[in-house]
Write the C-alpha cells for this entry.
Amino acid sequence: MTESLVVLLASFLAGATNAVAGGGTFITFPALVWLGTDPISANITNTVSLWMGSLFSALGFKDHIRMGKEHLKTLLIPSILGGFAGAYLLVKTPSNTFRILIPFLILFATILLMLNEKITLWAKAYSKGNPYLLVFLVQLLTSLYGGYFGAGIGIIMLASLSMVGIKDIHIANGLKNILGMAINGIASVYFLFSGHVLWSYIPLMMLGFALGGYTGARLSLKFNRKKVKLFVVFWGFLLCFIFFINFYPT
C-alpha cells in the first residue's frame, strides 16, 4: 500500500510539473529507482505512463492550443521520428552509461531555455527570417532526447516554440503538451516490446499523470509569462543538481 501511494503521489506531482514547466520525470524516475527498480526499466515505465499526463494537460490548454495550431504541422513529424529513434537508443544503452549522461542533458536543456531570446535572434539572423528549418532540426533532436529520457523535454520545446515567434507562454505550454504526447506515444509503442515495462505500476502512474496534468494546466494559467519562465529555469537547475548528487557515480 505504501509503495502504491508513493507511485501515485509522485505521478500526480510529475503530471502537474510537466503541465507547468516540464521536468516531471525527475519526480517519478527517482521514485521508481528508490523503490528498487533498474534505471532503464524505471525510465521506460515512466515514458509508457507519461503520455496520459500530456493528454490531460493539453485538455487544460485547449483554448490556447487552437491559437497556435498552425505550428503543429511543422513540429509533429520530427517529434514522431525523433521519439522512435530515442526509444531505440535507450534500449541499447547500458544502465551505467545512462546514469552518467542524465545530469548533463538536463543542464543543457535548462541553459537553452534561459537563453531562448538570444536563440530566437540568432535563428532569425541565420535563417533569413524563416527559422522553421532550424526549428525542425531542433525539434528532431529534442524528440530524440525525449524518447531517450525526457526529463526537461518541455524546457527544450518551450525554447523551440519561442524560436517560431510564440510569445504567449500558455500557448507554448499547450503545444508543448501535444508534442510531448506524440513523442512519448511513439516511444511507448516501441517500449511495449522491449521487456522492460513494469506493468504493475502503469495503472497508478497513468491515473496520477492524468490528474496531475489537468490540475497543473489549470493552475499554470494563473501565472504570467515571466513568472512561469523563472520557475522553469529554477526548476531545471534544481533538478540537475538533485540528480547529480543522488545518481552520479562517485
The CA atoms of residues 133 and 213 lie 31 Å apart.
